[in-house]
Every structure is written in C-alpha cells, then in structure tokens.
Amino acid sequence: MRRRWRWLLPLTAVPVLALLAYGFRLNPHEIPSPLLGRPAAPFTLTSYDGAPVELAALRGRVVVLNFWASWCYPACYEEAPALERGWRAYRDRGVVVLGVDIQDKDEAGRKFIQDFSLTFPNAPDPHGKVSVDYGVYGVPETFFIDRQGAIRVKHVSALTDQIFRETVETLLAEPAPAR
Amino acid sequence: MKPKFLIGGLVIALALGYLIWAGVTQSAVYFVTPSELSAAPVSGKAYRLGGLVERGTLKWDPATLDLSFSISDGKTRVPVRHKGSAPDLFGEGRGAVVEGQWTADGYFKATQILAKHSEEYKAPHDTKEAQSKGLIKTLQKGDR
Amino acid sequence: MIPEAGTGALLVALVLALYGAAAAAVGGRRGRSALVESAQHAALGVFALITAAVVLLIYAFLTFDFSVRYVANNTNLGTPFYYRITALWGALEGSIVLWSWMVSIYTLIVILRHRTSARELYPWALSVMLSVVAFFLLVMTVAAPVFARLTPIPADGRGLNPLLEDSGMITHPVALYLGFTGFTVPFAFAVAALITGRVGDFWITTTRRWTIVAWYFLSLGLLIGGWWSYHVLGWGGYWAWDPVENAAFMPWLTGTALLHSVMIQERRRMLRLWNIALVMLTFSLTLFGTFLTRSGVIASVHAFSQGSIGVFFLTFLALVVLAGLGLIAWRWDALGAQGELDSVVSRESAFLLNNVLLIAATFTVFFGTVFPLLSEAVRDVKVSVGAPFFNQVNVPLFLSLIFLMGVGPLIAWRRASVESLKRNFLGPVLVGLGAAVVFRLLGVGSMLAIVALALTVFVATTIGVDLVRATRVRRAMGERALPALGGLLLRHNRRYGGFVVHLAILVVVVGVTGSQAWSVHTETTLKRGEQAELGGYTIRFDGLRESQESNHGKVTGTFTVVNGSGAGTVLEPAKKFYPQEQSPIAYVDYRLGLMNDIYLVLGDFARDGTSATVKFQVNRMVSWIWIGGLVLTLGTLLAILPERRKAA
C-alpha cells in the first residue's frame, strides 16, 4: 500500500512550483497604465531633422512611440538597434516608429541618433509636455498605439525584437478602422 | 508513545495556522492605484498606493515637518499627507508608493513613503552634476 | 580581446563541467576509477577557467574597459580602487560568476578531502557538484553573459550603485554566497547516498562539518547584511522582512534545523528521511532565494535587475525538487527509522520540536514572502503582508526556540527522569523567573522584552551550570580550574562550540530585544545653533559644509552631540550627489556604543545652510547584534576543530 503511494511524493511540490511559475505571467515590464485602451494624446513636435512630427496624422497606422534619453543606458542603448530593426522591417506594412528624446541635451541627443544610425523620426520634447501627457516616469518607455489611435500596450525598460514583433503583429492583424 | 506525538504535532499545526491567519488578517496591505482607491475608499484599512507624484502639488514645511502632495495615475489624484521629510528618491513627476490609511477627512495619511530604486530603470533627470555644483555654490554664498 | 577570452573560458568551463559530471557518474556506476580521475581533472580545469574569467573581469574593471557592458554599468572613472574590484559582484552577472567560482572551489576541496575517504559516494557527489557548476555556467553563457559588449563604447561608465559603495557590501555578498554554495556539498552527498542506496549514517557524518561551515557563512552574511542595512540605508533598522532578506533567512532556518537533527541521527539512528529531506530543502531554498530576488516575480525594495534568468532558476529549482523527491520515493524503504522515540521528555523530542518549530518558521516566512503572488493567483487582489505579519507569527516561535535552546543540551537522551530534570533545570528556571521579576522592578514595560530577556537568562544559566559541573568533575580528578575548563572546551569541542554558538545567539537576541523595546527616534528641523533632545542626548546643529569628492558632490551637516554627563562629540551626516543618480543619497553618521547608538540622518536642508531637517535616533543595544557575530565566529571555530576525544 505505502509502496505505491510514495511515488506521489514528487507531486506535492507541483503546486508550489506552479505558483512560482505563475509569477512569470505578471510581466514586471508591462506596467498597468490607466491610459491603456484610451485614445493616445495628440502632439506635434519638431524632429531633429527639422520636420514636423504630428501624431494625429498617423491615424490608421500602428505607431510605436518610444521615450528615450542619451544619458539612459544600458537600457536605451540596448533597445535602439531593436527599434531601428523593427522600423526597417515593418515600415512598409504601415508601422511608424517615433522616438521622443526627453530631458536631454541637444547635441547628446543628436550624437545618440548618429551613433545608432537611427532612421526613424526622433524629436526632442523641450518642455516635457508629451512625456507628462503619457505619464512617463522613466526611460525607456514604449507605447504601442493601434490603428484606431488608442494606446494598447505600455512597455517599460528595454524593448526587444521579440516584443516589438509580437506586439506589432497583433496590432497589424486587427482590421483597419472604417473611414 | 505515538499518540502523544501526534497530538503534539496537531496542536503545533493548529497554533501555527491560527497565528498565520490572525497575522494575515491584521497586517494585510492592499495595493491600489489612485483610481481604485477613489472608487471604493475604506477608512482605516491599510493600503499601499502607487502612482506618480503630480507636478506642482508637492509642499514641504520644514518647520512643522508637514509633507503633502498628490499621487495620480493620470485619471484620478489622491491627496496625501505625511509627517517627516521625503526619502531620497522622492520627487515631483516621479513614481512613488505610499503606505498608510485613507482618512475620513478625505486625504491619504501616509505612514511610509517608498521610492523605488532600480538598477536598470532610470527616471528622467537633469544633468545632476551641474545641479549639485549649483547647489554647492548657493551654500557657499550662504556661509560667507 | 579580453571579453572574448573571458567568454571563451566560461564556455570551455561549461563543456568541461558537463563532461566531468557525466564521467564521474559513469565512473561511479561502473566502478571505473579512471573515469572518476578524469572527472577530477575536469573539475580542476573548470576551477582554473572560472578563475581566469574572474581575473579577466577584474582586469577589465581595473583598466576601465567600458566596452564590457558589465564594467560600464558598475563603475565609472571616479570609482575608488577597492570598489572597482568588488564591483565584480555588484550586480547580477558578476554574482553568478562569483557563485560558480565558489562552487568550483568547494568542489576542489571535496576532491582533496573525500577522494579516498568516501569511495562509494564520492564519484556521485563529484558529479552533482559539477552539475551545479555547469548550471551556473549555463546561466552565465546564455542568460546573463558577464562579458557582453556595449556599443558604442561610452566615454565613462555609469558607476556602481552608490548604496553599494560600502565596506559591508564588499563582505556581505561573499559571506552570503559562501553560505549558499556551501550547502551544495551536503546536498551532493545526500543525492549520492540516495543514488547508491547507502542512505545510512555515513553521508551525514561526512558532511556534518560542511554543514556547519555553510551555516556559519550564511549567518555571517545575514549579520553583515543587517549591519549594511543599519548604517547605510538610513532608516535605523537592520532587518525589514524584505523578500531579499527572507530569501537568505529561509535556508538559514532549515540549515539550523539540519545542524540539530543530524545529531539525533548520529546518536539514535533516527530521522534518516527527515535529514535527507532537510538537506534537499535547504539547497532548494538557496536556489529559490536567487530565483526570488533575480526574477522580479516578487517586487522588493532592493529591486534587482530582471531578466530571463528567472526562468533558468525556476527550471533548475523544479529539476532539483522533483528529482530529489523522486529519489526519496525510490529509496523510501531504506529510509525507514532504525530507532524509536522513547519518551516525550527526552533530548530527542526537544530536538524534534526544535526542528518542527524551525520548519514552521520557514513556512511562515515562505508564506509571507509569496503571499502577494498567492493572493493574486487565488483572489486576483494584490495584497501583501508586511513586517507586522512576520513579527507576529515568528516571535512566539522564536521564543519557544530560545526556551528549547536551554532544554535541549542538558536533558537526557531517551528518557529524562524527574530527578534529572530537577537537578538540571530547577536552578536555571528559578534564576530565569527571578530575572523576570528584576526586569519588571527595573521598570521594563514591555511584556515581550521581559519574556525574551528572562528566557535568555535561563538559557545562559543552563550553559553556566553545565560548564561549572563539568569543570568540577575534572577538578575532582586533580586538575586545576582553568586548565580543567580549557581542556573541557577542547576535548568536547563540538559540544562546547555549540554552547558558544548558543551564547552568540543569546547575545543577538538581547540586541534585537533591546533595540526593539527601547530605541527612540524623532525628526526635527533645526536652525543653526538650535538644539534638540532625545533619550538623554542633546544635538546642536552647527552648520552645513559642502565638498567635491572623487565621484560625487557632498553636503555635510555638522551636529554636536552631548550626553547627560556633558561629553561632546561631532556627527556629520551628509547628502551625496552622484552625477549618475537622479536623487541625492543620504550618508548616515553614527556613534556606536554598547548600550546606545546615536544615529543621525540628514533629511533636508535650507539652500542657504541656515537650517536642516534631521532624523535623530538613539538606538539601544544594537551593538550586541554585531558582538553576537563575533562570538558566533569563535563558537564555530571551536566546533569544527578536529575532535580530540578519541586521541585522548
């Protein structure tokens, strides 16, 4: 009797291990934001190239809005190449990557863009208005905005290729808004 | 002899169970956002309230040690009062977690302010070196 | 070049460790000593390669090689020399390197010590040790590469977390990791015993000293951690029941249980199953600790960086736990008890109760630590339990344990007669009760403090009674008092080493009790020349001063502290401004005393230097905790001396 029961012994550890594994479900990088599901606040900035960057004009596209700063590393240094790769891979499918450089010095910001050969539009946020509107309290933070113009995902800390790809694919799979 | 040990074990298990149960009911702290707290505030219950310290709301009176500010999550703001100076990492526009209770007078009475310190995740800041040097200059003027 | 060499060394070490683990296992199974010898060479190679990686990393730190991400993250050009070396374990990746290095060192010692003495178990133990090293090397090469490059190369690094620039942070992780990794050895032998089916008492006697060493380093790590928390973090406490602290405390509790239950097995051939399970549990908890603190699953104010490392640790933890329990199930019949408990009133039951209480405390700490996770999984509410929970549940358990500390060593094995109970305990119990009355009359208000201190007196008296009695026996045989005592300590060094460790715990208990019961604190804003009074001390604010240090700016407040008798001393708490940090860091100033610590934290100050807000604490008897650490060291040294009894 007892001999057979003993093989159930390892099973006793399963609930504890399952509970710990459950912890991974809670991604600490995905900070719950009250802005999720809400329309992204409109803004117009001037990029480092001097071109205007207007969020409202991008309605109907999936927008990856990234807040960064040149003094933020390693996280910003790690994700910059991933953002550039994502931009190159998805720009033809209607995805726009926007970088907003916050609380930075002008030349440091330009050097960062140059060092990483970033080709997507990047703009300084001189008065910090955009970062306040988006409740940014650290860099890097990345907001994924769907084609309806609503914030869908907020990612805190360095973005990876995988998260970029998976999130953007999900948003692209949704139907475009009726016009 | 066996029954005695069994009974002893049972008594210990029951006592521990009671201690844990009583401990949990008395010291449970609920994590809430300002919106969740405003939706159903219960005065006297222990909360841990997390959000942003809203810009322009921070007031500090060194003479009375009264610290007050609002914690916001973008939708709702909760006024917070605290007795004592703020911790090092605390500041306007930054994330903070305050522990304490909701009072019937319509504000959150913080017993503890926790500002998070992280290795990889950095809050925005000015070029601090310049700032600290400026501060040091100010102090030098004050001394002479 | 250097990073590539380091990565290469770690990769080769991984391959060697895997080979060695396999070779030792096959050699053990087939009885082929050539294979086992080959595994030994592999272990030596693993050690040499990890050492090389450590040296390369230190070299990178010393030469400010910011092309290495880990170096750029943890130093900058202003980091002082010593901290450039200790930055090695300033963050996750380096800690893993340190960890694996320590296990590889322990593996070498196991080879040297047990190669011939534990022939059957040894190959399997070696295999387990090398597997553990291989796991950490795998983490290092895949999840947390310490030699990863950073491009573009920054002109200057970010610098070490300023809170870690402290001597406590140099020693704390080393001691803690020596403790954590030390439990690998008993674990390896336990697994070896299960695999070979030699679950008798041999593996326990072989690893007893290892357990003591690991336990000692873990204790030391905890105490130094408390010291760091006390004098750096500026809240005046040494223990906060933070998940990170709990993670280190749980293996300490189970390790303590193990130290005691081993004695029952040695003496009475009981608890085989229990001891094996305890070793497994302790080792699992060391892994769980790392999982907890590094995975980000439980939020902690210590806030370590997060990464995929959590998945690795959980997988390894699951493997260890499931395999361990499977092995136990496999050898279930052989693990049956040989002896029987004879009486409720006996040393066996005292030790058993000690174990039950320690496990109960472990469970409590575990439960409280994962409670946020549990409540979210079950009720979808985010609830945590804080320090009040841990104190409320653990204080009764710990008080009972202190009581047992007095009972256990003196009560008879098997069955204690009423006569022997009276002879051994009547005196100490009366002294303890008397002490309680005296404390009450002296005006001690807190019931808890009275109970804790009276129990301490009781236990100390039992130890004293035993020493006096044993010395008297030797004196009756013609020795003089002091040589008799010395001979006693050395000849029965294991028993009396244990007693000294018990005394150390008592000293710590007094420190904790005193500081919890009588410490006072206040916060106040003072104008220049103004005074504040607290707990028999007066402080006067004399002004602010500013300076530029090698890697930070500093604003220092000057306070003169005067005690009741008028002797004055100057304390200078400060705020440090690190360029890479967004906020100033408080620098605590304090004066330690046997009974009173004066502790000042500069909270805020007027920009013109005319006034300052200061947190002013008078902490009572905290120094006893650190003194307890010293006594603990003496006791442990005494306990692990080679036994002399047989030679005499």
Given helix and strand content, the structural type of chain C is alpha+beta
Oligomer: heterotrimer
Question: Which structural class do the helices and strands of chain B define?
Answer: alpha+beta
Order of helices and strands of chain B: HEHEEEEEEH
Most strands sheet of chain C: 6 strands, antiparallel
Principal-axes shape call of chain C:
globular
Give the fraction of residues assigned to helices of chain B: 25-40%
Instruction: Determine the N-to-C terminus distance of chain B.
Output: 83 Å
Report the order of strands and helices of chain C. HHHHHHHHHHHHHEHHHHHEEEEEEEEEEH
Termini distance of chain C?
59 Å
The count of β-strands of chain C is 11
List keywords for this structure.
heterotrimer; A: 179 residues; alpha/beta; five-stranded mixed sheet; two-stranded antiparallel sheet; 6 helices; 7 strands; 32% helix; C: 648 residues; alpha+beta; six-stranded antiparallel sheet; four-stranded antiparallel sheet; 19 helices; 11 strands; 63% helix; globular
What would your notes on this structure say?
The complex is a heterotrimer of chains A (179), B (144) and C (648). Chain A has helices at residues 2-5, 14-22, 75-90, 106-115, 129-133, 161-173, and strands at residues 44-46, 52-54, 62-68, 95-101, 122-124, 141-145, 151-156. With 179 residues, chain A is α/β, with parallel strands linked by helices. The longest helix of chain A is centred in the middle third of the chain and has 16 residues, at 75-90. Chain A is elongated and about 80 Å long. The model of chain A has no long low-confidence stretch (mean pLDDT 84). In chain B, strand 6 (95-102) and strand 7 form a beta hairpin. By secondary structure, chain C is of the alpha+beta class. In chain C, the strands form two sheets. In chain C, strands 3, 4, 5, 6, 7 and 8 form a six-stranded antiparallel β-sheet that branches. Chain C has a four-stranded antiparallel β-sheet with strand order 2-11-10-9. Chain C is globular, with a radius of gyration of 27 Å. Chains A and C meet through helix 2 of A and helix 3, helix 11, helix 12 and helix 13 of C. Strand 1 (28-32) of chain B pairs antiparallel with strand 1 of chain C.
